[in-house]
Each structure stands twice: as structure tokens, then as C-alpha cells.
Amino acid sequence: MARGQQKVQSQQKSAEKAAKIKKQQGHSANDQKKAAQKALVHVCAVCKAQMPDPKTYKQHFENKHPKNDMPQDLKDL
Ligand SMILES: [Zn+2]
């Protein structure tokens, strides 16, 4: 039954390959998530503090830099 065994082996191999690709895809999806999170970091134009979202940035700006002009995109929030 050499033929049958070969078939099983090749099935196992392709299953391994698929698992590897899945792993790689999962990995790159994680990286993309990280990159997206990084892009969401808002850096204060005045003191360079990093904020996770624009609302926090706006609050920070109002509290810490009331005399500075607030960036237009924060006013719109
Ligand atoms: Zn600041």
C-alpha cells in the first residue's frame, strides 16, 4: 500500500504547510494590529506627551495648555 501511504504523507505535508501559513498570517495580523495601535497614538503638539485617543488629547490640551490654540481637529470633537 505504498501509494496510499504516499497520499497520507502528502496530505500531512499540505496540512503542515497550511498550518504554517495560518501561523504566519496570524502573526502578521498581530503586527497590523500593533501598527494600527501605534498610529492611534496622538502626540501633544505642545509637550509631546502621547495620548491613546483624541478625546484624551483634547482633555489634556484643555487642562495643560489652556493658553495654547487647540488644533482644529480637536475642536471638532
Ligand atoms: Zn501637552
Automatic annotation (TrEMBL):
<dbReference type="Pfam" id="PF04419">
    <property type="entry name" value="SERF-like_N"/>
</dbReference>
<dbReference type="GO" id="GO:0005634">
    <property type="term" value="C:nucleus"/>
</dbReference>
<dbReference type="InterPro" id="IPR045230">
    <property type="entry name" value="MBS1/2-like"/>
</dbReference>
<keyword id="KW-0963">Cytoplasm</keyword>
<protein>
    <recommendedName>
        <fullName>Small EDRK-rich factor-like N-terminal domain-containing protein</fullName>
    </recommendedName>
</protein>
<feature type="region of interest" description="Disordered">
    <location>
        <begin position="1"/>
        <end position="37"/>
    </location>
</feature>
<keyword id="KW-0539">Nucleus</keyword>
<feature type="compositionally biased region" description="Polar residues">
    <location>
        <begin position="1"/>
        <end position="13"/>
    </location>
</feature>
<feature type="compositionally biased region" description="Basic and acidic residues">
    <location>
        <begin position="55"/>
        <end position="77"/>
    </location>
</feature>
<feature type="domain" description="Small EDRK-rich factor-like N-terminal">
    <location>
        <begin position="1"/>
        <end position="40"/>
    </location>
</feature>
<dbReference type="InterPro" id="IPR007513">
    <property type="entry name" value="SERF-like_N"/>
</dbReference>
<dbReference type="GO" id="GO:0005737">
    <property type="term" value="C:cytoplasm"/>
</dbReference>
<dbReference type="InterPro" id="IPR026939">
    <property type="entry name" value="ZNF706/At2g23090_sf"/>
</dbReference>
<feature type="region of interest" description="Disordered">
    <location>
        <begin position="54"/>
        <end position="77"/>
    </location>
</feature>
